Amino acid sequence: MTAAATVTCGQGGSTRAVAYLELALGESLDTSAEITIRHQLGRLYDEAKDPKALDHLHRAWELSRDLTDAPAIEIVEAYATALFHAALLEQAGEVCRAALATVDQTCDYTSWLRLEAAALNAEAISRRNRGRPAELRPVVCGATTPAQRAVLAHVAWDAAVRAAAGHREVADLARRAIGGTALISEVGSASPVFIYAGSALAWTGEYQEVDEFATAGITAAVGSGSLVGVAYATALRAGNSVYRGAIDQAETDAHRVLDELANVDPMCFAMTVGWQIEVAVEREHCAGAMSMLEHYGLNGELPDIGTIDTLLLSRARLFAALGNHERALADLAEVSERGHRSAYLNPVASPWRSMTATVRSLQGTFDTRCRDLLEAELTEARRYGAPRAVGQALLARAQLRSGAAAVADLREAVEILRPSQAALVFAESLVELGAAPESGDVAERRDLLRTGMDAAHRCGSWRLVSRAMSALRATGARPRRPQVTGLQALTPQERRVAQLAATDIGNREIAEQLFLTRRTVELHLTHTYRKLGISGRAELRPALAP
Are 502 and 544 in contact (CB under 8 A)? Predict the structure, then answer.
């Protein structure tokens, strides 16, 4: 039965493999055979997000320890990963550290590194053992083996989130960890390592590379039937799209995770709620985002987990947009406290200082401390060097200054952001520069505002389009709101269907991947062709090009 299950699973038949293994488990087995079967069952159940995964893997882990005093590395990794997916982070780290105590680094170097990576998966977002990635860097910087690449992903992530290296150095570390297609083939997109590597690269501003990495992760996960992998890679692409200002793509991906993969991973879900809030603010749908938070029970106190910081930041932005300054400041104070405990203070990932100063200004309580926060964030952003972080800090300071000083900040932001991939922050810098009366004559300002409004429209930010139109009217112009046509007219589901159809797969395969009926796929494609003004599938690929 075990052999049949292995063959069936290798052919993509995980449901049948589970059935074979469950039957085998009912047979008379020695301890070694039971460990093997429970290990395989646990991994399959974990991929399918079945809670039975933890029971089987825990039992395999216990039996393995009883048998040899040092459980097999594969069992420890699988058990720790399942614990991670269930957000049992402290337990996941402890399982790995206990196993590490039984490994002789000099005799079993690869197992030692694999266990270090598995432990760091949990410890990074539970804010434990934070000095470890830097200690391991000299050992793994060569990135010549899968185990080295897995640990190097943590080195890159930690260096980014703590601003322990400049953005170019972090990008180099992340690229070496990713290793082209190596990391995906070695650990898959269901591994936390995939998220750490992709996030580190995103925080350097290399958004196109991250988009390609995330898309490859989605493709691999769909091919292997890994729901966790699809959720992780889709959430990574959603966040990366928020950073780059591709709001249409961010909306499409966030909807997929929240609508179709909500029960896959609680931390991935919470982070994606944050990305959906960012989309809602840009779409001027703040009331809907507030209703979403209440519906999911995420409007109150939130767990102290690193991924939750993203949701707290987005929630603070939403509260500020709704005029609830006290709630916004409370969330930002919580992010600050958590960040200081773990030294996760790089503004590229957590711009809480400029956000706090901006909210206090809106509240009418801006003071010297707020000015100090702004200066500290700008200094840190310049030291790290990622254009988006520097541009955001300059924008925040400019909005709290006036006259020539504000214009100087805005002009610097425009020049820094112009060659970058941070399209939305660049558009905002153009709009704010055009809105400043001291930035030039009326004709020059209108040109900046129209250019910024056009860029904001391409990004899908109706918030910034509205801001540009208001500033244009203040100059005496009579602007028209850009029409929502083409790609921006597609619903998230229509966009998902169209993207798959453009890869030349059939309607049946699209329906299976998106859990739809074939008739629903056909209707979505019909609506898409009409909105894009094309006659059929053959024209989809160029029509979907950004």
Answer: yes
pLDDT mean across residues, the chain: 91
When pLDDT is cut at 50, 70 and 90, the band that residue 48 belongs to is confident
CA dist 145 and 178 (Å) reads 11
Q: Closest Cα partner for 296 from 266, 254, 332?
A: 266
DSSP letter assigned to residue 300:
S
Task: Please state, in angstroms and as integers, the Cα–Cα distance from residue 150 to each residue in 47, 81, 166, 257, following that order.
Answer: 20, 14, 21, 25
Show the CA angle centred on residue 183, arms to residues 11 and 191, nearest 5°.
Answer: 70
Cα angle 49, 53, 56; round to 5:
170
Q: Go through the domains of the chain in sequence order and give each one's CATH number.
A: 335-482 (1.25.40), 488-544 (1.10.10.10)
Amino acid occupying residue 453 = M
Residue 77 confidence (pLDDT): 92
Distance CA 40, CA 38 (A): 5
Here the contacts of 99-104 (C-beta below 8 Å, separation 24 or greater) are: 99/70, 99/71, 99/73, 102/69, 102/70, 103/70
Which of residues 179 and 31 earns the better pLDDT score? 179
In this predicted model, which residue has the larger pLDDT, 18 or 381? 381
Whether 183 contacts 197, CB under 8 Å: yes
Q: How far apart are CA 487 and CA 512, in angstroms?
A: 24
Express each pLDDT in 54-112 by its tens digit.
Answer: 999 999 998 988 766 556 889 999 999 999 999 999 999 999 999 999 888 877 899 99
Q: What is the tens place of the pLDDT at every residue in 398-419?
A: 999 999 999 999 999 999 999 9
Q: How far apart are CA 433 and CA 452, in angstroms?
A: 9
The answer to whether 170 touches 159, Cβ cutoff 8 Å, is yes
The CA distance from 430 to 453, in Å, is 9
Residues 6+ apart with CB under 8 A from 232: 189, 190, 192, 194, 195, 217, 221, 265, 268
For residue 180, how many other CB atoms are within 10 A of its CB?
10
Rounded mean pLDDT, 230-240? 97
**Those residues with Cβ within 8 angstroms of residue 83's Cβ, 6 or more apart along the chain or in another chain:** 54, 89, 91, 92, 95, 122
Distance between CA atoms of residues 118 and 95, nearest Å: 9
